[in-house]
Amino acid sequence: MRIKDKVSSLKGIGPKKEEALLDAGIETLEDVIYFFPRNYEDRRTVSTIKGAELFKDVLIEAKIISKKYSGNPYKKNTPLTLLIEDESGRGEVVFFNGRFLNKLFQVNQDYAFYGRVSENFARRQMIHPQFSRLGSKDDIRGILPVYPVIPGFSQNELRKMEKGLMPLYEGIEEWLPAEVIEENRLCDPAYALKNLHFPSDGRKVLEGKFRMVFEELFTLEAGLISIRQADKRSDTAVSFDCSYGDEFAASLPFELTSGQKEAWESIKADLQGSKRMNRLLQGDVGSGKTVLAEMAMLSAAKQRIQSVIMAPTELLAKQHLESFNRDLMPLGIKTDLLISSITASEKRRIIEDLAEGNINILIATHAVLEEKVVFKNLGLVITDEQHRFGVSQRRKLSAKAEDANVLVMRATPIPRTLAVILYGDLDVSQVRTMPTGRKPVKTTMVRPEERDRMYDFLRQEIKKGRQAYVVCPLISESESIEARSADQVYEELLGTFGNCNVALVHGAMKTDEKNGVMESFVAGDVDILVSTVVIEVGINVPNATVMVIENAERFGLAQLHQLRGRVGRGSEESYCFLVTDSNGDIAVERSKIMCSTNSGFEIAEEDLRLRGPGEVFGTRQHGLPQLEISDLVKHADVLEKAAQAAKKVVEKDPNLEKEENQKLKERVKKLYGDSISLDL
Ligand code: ADP
Ligand code: MG
After folding, report:
1. pLDDT tens sequence across 510-540
2. Which residues are in the CB-under-5-Å shell of ion ligand 2?
3. What is the residue with the minimal CA distance to atom 14 of ligand 1?
C-alpha cells in the first residue's frame, strides 16, 4: 500500500464507490488521508436512562436484562426488544430488523448505546441506536469524526477506511521549513492527521486542525505570491492625463452619482500618477461601473495608449461594445471586439492592429488571453465581473504588459482585509450610490397558488411592450430535487402565453444557440425568457421589467440579488416575484430581506449574518481553488500568518526551485490543479 495508490486498490471499493469518491475529489489514498472530518461527535459523557435528555443523541451504558424476539420465520423482520438497566432504572432498546441482530446481544452483559431517547407511554426507549459491547474492540464511545457526506458511504465506512490507512502516516514527512514550524508552533503532520481522524482529546484535535489549516493556507498563499512574483510587476506604470474623462462625463445625459465621482477621483489620481494602479472597484449591480471604465479608457485612447476590458461572456462583451460605440464613436474613438466567435480573418486583423498600435480600445472575453495576442503599448487593463475569472486568467491578462495599470470590477463586496491578502496590495473603491431616478425593484413573495394572478400581471406588462425573465433552479426535471425545471416551466408557459414569444435558454445548450436566444431577447423579439441562472451576470436589457424566480428558496441572497438586478434598468417600474412554497426560516428570512431592500451592500451584510462568512466568501467567489479544511474568513488570522510565512519563502525562491521547496511546489501544483499555469 502506497500513498499515491488509487482508491480502487482498497478492499471494498468497486467501480461505483470509486466514482462516488472521485466525485468528491478523492482519487488516491493520499486524498483519503487529506479528507477531513467536518465535525466531531462527542460520545464521552454517559447519560443515564432516566436522566437522558429526550430526542437528542446521547450515550447510555446499561446491562441487558432480557431479550424479546419471537423469531417468526414467516415474517421478514420481527422486532427485537432488549430490556436494559442502569443505576437510574430501566428502559428498552428496539430494533425492527431483529433477525440479524438477535445473535449479537447477550443477556447480563454491559453495552454502550448511542442514539435518541424517546418516551413510549412511561417507558424510555431507544430505537435503532448504535451499540458496542463494553470492552469489545470496536467501541462506539469517545470522540467520533463526522465526515462530509459521500453518497453510498456510511460514516462508519468512512471511519473504517481512514483507520485502514493509518500505517501510511509514518511515511508522511514534515515538509514545512523549520523556521515556520517553530514560529507558529505547529505539530508535525502525522500527529495532526492522527488526531484529526482518531481524536482522543479536544485540545489535540485543535492542534492538529491548526497545523492542517496552516499548511493549506500556506500552500494557497505560496501559489498566489509566486503568481504575483512571477509577474514581476513594476511599481511604476504608464501615466496619462484624465481630463478627457471629465469632459466626457460632462457630456453625458446624466450626472455621475456621488459614489461614481468619488471612485473616479481615485482612479484618475492613480492613472495620472506614476505609481501603478492596482484597484478593486466594487459597486452594486447597476451602480454604473462601466461608465467609469469608459472614462478611463477614453482618456488613454486620446493619448494613443492602449487599454482592454475583459468580460466573462460574449454577450457582456457585445453589450459593452454597444455602449462604447454609442458613447465614444461621436468623439472619434473606435472600439474593437475580440471574442471567439468572430471570423478568423477579423481575428487576424485585430491581432495585427493590436500589435501595431492601431487599436486603442479593446473589448474582449478570455479570447484575449491567447499568447499570440500582443499589445504595442498597453497602459490599462480592466477585468469586469472579476469573480468569474480564475487567478491564472487574471494573471495572464495583466502579464500582457508589465507596466499597465490594473482595475478589477465586481458587484459583490468582499471585506477589505480579505481582498488585500487575496489580491495583494490592492486599493479599494466602492460605489455605494445608485443613479437617481432609478426606481427600486418592487419585490413580492408569491405562493404557488397565486401563480395565476402573477401570470395575469405578466400578461399586462407584456401588453405594454415589456419583457420578462423567468428563472428556474434546474434545467430539466430531477428525481432527487423537488423544484421546477426550466424545461417544464417553458412548456407550461408556451401553453399559458399562447400569443407571446417564449424562449428557453440554459447552461447545457451550445454557446451559439445560447447566444442566439439571448440576442433575440436583447433585440426585443422574445417576450418571456425562461432560463436557469445563466443570465446571472451583467446583462443589460432596460426593457425587461419583470423577474420571476421559481423556487426562490433554492437561491442564496447574493444570487437572488444578482438576478433581480437584471430588471429595474430602465425608466419603467420593475417587479421581482419570488415564488416559493417553503416555510423554512431561512427562506422566509431571505424573502423578507429581499422585499425590504435593494442595496447589495445591505444584502451582503445580511447574507453574512444568515449564512456565516465561510459560505458567503467561499473560494469559488474568488476564482481560487477549493480548500479542504480552511475557511478564508473564519481562519483569517491563520491566513495572515501563513501569508507572511509564505512570502518569506517565495521571496527567497520565486520559482520554488530549491531542493527544500520541492514538496511545497508539488503541493501548490496539486492545490491549483489546471487552473495554474505557473512556470513551476
Ligand atoms: P454595473 O455597475 O452593474 O456594471 P452599468 O455600468 O451597466 O452598471 O450601468 C447600468 C446603467 O446605468 C447603464 O445603462 C448606464 O448608462 C446607466 N448609468 C450609469 N451611471 C449613471 C448615472 N449616474 N445616472 C443615470 N444612469 C447611469
Ligand atoms: Mg457591469
Report:
1. 888 888 898 899 999 999 999 988 765 567 8
2. 538
3. 569
